[in-house]
Amino acid sequence: MSLATTLTKLATPTALAFAMLAAPAQAQGVQAAGSDAFNLPEDVTFISGNNNPNVRRATARVNGNIITGTDIDQRLALIMSTQGEVEYSEAQLQELRLQVLRNLIDETLQVQEASIQDMAVTNEEVDSAYENFAVNGRGMTVPELDAYLTSIGSSPRSIKRQIMGELAWDRLLQRNIYPFVSVSAEEVREVHERIVEATGTTEYRLGEIFLSANPTNRDQVAANAQQIVQQLRQGGSFVAYARQYSEASTRIVGGDLGWIRLEQLQQPTLEAAAQQMTPGQLVGPLEIPGGFSILLMIDQRQIGMADPRDAVLSLKQISIGFEPGMTPEAAEARAAEFIEVVNSMSGCGDANQRAAAIGAQVVDNDQIPVRQLPEALQTPLLQLSLGQTTPPFGDLTEGVRVLMLCGRDDPEQTSGPTIAEIENSIESDRVNRRAQRYLRDLRRDAVIEYN
Description:
Layout lengths: L59 E3 L2 E3 L1 H13 L8 H27 L6 H16 L3 H10 L4 H21 L8 H13 L4 E11 L5 H16 L4 H8 L10 E5 L7 H8 L6 E7 L2 E12 L9 E9 L7 H16 L7 H7 L3 E9 L5 H8 L10 E3 L3 E11 L9 H27 L2 E3 L1
Antiparallel strand pairs: 1-2, 1-11, 3-4, 3-6, 5-6, 7-8, 7-10, 9-10
């Protein structure tokens, strides 16, 4: 369970309007598109100072609140602990530190804004959410979580700071965004009708990491996005990276967009990419208006149709091992005998007796969902009739096994997304867009001094 899912929404909508969200903010002075506004030379020569863009100052004062090097180190340790064995170059570590600093700046701005609007998050609320996360999210007591965080070079204070930022931001959105995002019954009805007409077509559950970019910083953001993709391919946690890097409001749930149809993405580039993806596949970075997206196909299903992978199977695993020191020739002969006996079995009724005759082991499991099985086994098992087995798998070192199908409970037909789910999906997209603009305004108006 992610940290975000353990947090309770505390804010309550009010009838107060937030003026700067009513229309896009307009900067004073002459406006021009992209870098044309600055009439920049092609050959830039720095007059003095360090002209290496990868070497930056590490700490900051945000509207008077200090972010220390210790704050960055402890948050970095928390992130690194979720990434397993991923190794970082010095350049990647430097970029990660800069991203952590940017996130800490955003959290500070969110906490400050909540306080200004008399919605400050109390220490008691943070402690309660922290305890909830320890027990429900990590299966630990508070002292155990405290000790764990210290052991990895982080601290309870670091994660509590993140909790406070999330609670503050949620309150701000509840007061200043949600009440002014409306979804009409007509819009929902039209989407629902299209879904009914599309029964049998595919619905997707996607994860997204979105990085905003403009013509000035496009190349740097693209390089950062490419590094994230490389680290994810090396085994990094998509949820952890989404929570740390994504600039979409879905970062709080690890980038999970939920179940959607591709047209709901409202981006032809993303639609085309997702249509070609299979569950577990990662693609990106994909350039779209406003920045870059990294997509993970979490799952997919057919609208209004039962998903065969929701079936629950009754299986027998029949296997043999090889004694230490057995020659390859003897192991091959033993495997051949095993396969011959398995192929001659008359279903599940005589499997145990026939397996015992050749010293094979049998393990029964009567309640195993197809989704819990390795993906490579799901399709072969779904194609079996009762009493049939999968092709043998394994090797001559660890052993050889088959799975025999002894029963199958198919899922009931589904009715597709409900009216409420459709409304929530449309609303979430609109909230996300306004939330991004809100945070950009906070950054623009902030006084930030780097140390």
